[in-house]
Amino acid sequence: MAVRRVHSLKCTVVTHEVFVVGRGWHGQPMATTYNLIPYGLENLGEFTRDNVQKWLDTHAGDFQVITDFSASLAEVEIPFATEEGELAWYDLMFDNE
To answer: Coil, strand, or helix at residue 67?
Structure first.
């Protein structure tokens, strides 16, 4: 009887995302996720809450007002500023589930 060895391939997925909640141009509540590509990361500068807010001010044109956001850059996380913001994001993104 031959022994068959199965090797599993391990990979790590690194994500750079910004989770945004706010109001659209018609006053409707909105939420979305922006995936940061290398160009966006270059424009972001140092990964701080203030810099992410500045990046959103120039790159989140679908929003009239951003009420809260969370961001992740690999293993570094910037949490939502409020629990209400986080709950609103989940409610809007996963309303049908």
So the answer is: strand
Half-sphere exposure of 60 (CA within 13 A, CB side): 27
Dist. CA 56–CA 49, nearest whole Å: 11
Express each pLDDT in 5-45 by its tens digit: 666 667 666 678 999 999 999 999 999 999 888 777 777 88
DSSP tag of 27: S
CB contact set of 93 (below 8 Å; sequence gap of 6+): 31, 32, 33
The answer to whether the CB of 66 falls within 8 A of the CB of 60 is yes
- pTM value is 0.80
Q: How far apart are CA 64 and CA 83, in angstroms?
A: 21
